[in-house]
Write a structure and sequence with these properties.
The structure is a homodimer of 102-residue chains.
Chain A: H1 6-12, H2 16-28, E1 31-32, H3 33-40, H4 44-56, E2 60-65, E3 68-73, H5 75-92
Chain B binds a DNA duplex (30 and 30 nucleotides) through helix 4.
DNA sequence: TCATTGAATGAAGTATAAATCATATGATAG
DNA sequence: CTATCATATGATTTATACTTCATTCAATGA
């Protein structure tokens, strides 16, 4: 798959599962599919499908180690991206008073 | 709607239409629904639905001007967010050689 | 007050993406 | 070369999001 537009990249990040995978890789370093499977308690094939999409837009990298494939996060992009959202939420989406509700 | 997780915010940005709206507001400043409708050639109600989602996570702000509702972009978040993706694509997703293909 | 204009809402149909299952590939060990 | 383990792939089902249409609401002006 070739990603052409901004929304394609955001689409890959719009899945709770994939965000969890990225957060795991970010916190605990590189993992192979089986390790992710065991820690997140999801099917192997679901993870492979997710990794393919994450890889497709280079949010992760992969390296072969024998039969395993070890995935690592692209911190250069993901960390500042997540930080931006975190700051945005803090600035605009935490209701300290009752100014907005929906 | 209350957004709770990273992926909720990315989901809102995962639509080509909504990204176009944000880019329009970013380039040309605040617009009311009718102006967006005319420039992007989409249905009024489709835009209203999109604006609701964009508003829900504060990617845009709204102000009443008579019968019109004028939407403006939250530049503080959107500009750095889009810049990050732009830089990421430049760094990782432009093939200068034939190292990867999918 | 009633008609008009701009926009929001809700429900229905339609399109897209995710979850699951079965199977295939590819590396290693025996 | 065969069996096994790790992962990938493709097809199908299932869930989610988008589009569209009809209707409603809210503000203004006659």
């Amino acid at each position: 798959m070739i990603y052409t537009s901004f929304n394609d990249f955001f689409a890959v990040l719009s899945s709770k599962q994939r965000v969890k995978i990225l957060q795991l890789l970010n916190r605990e370093g590189p993992h192979c599919v089986n390790q992710i499977k065991n820690k997140l308690k999801v099917e192997q094939s679901a993870i492979s499908h997710d990794m393919k999409r994450l890889l497709g837009c280079r949010f992760v990298f992969v390296e072969r180690k024998g039969k395993e494939r070890v995935y690592s996060i692209n911190k250069t992009t993901i960390q500042p991206l997540f930080n931006l959202i975190r700051e945005h939420v803090e600035a605009h989406c935490v209701r300290k008073d009752d100014k907005w509700n929906d």
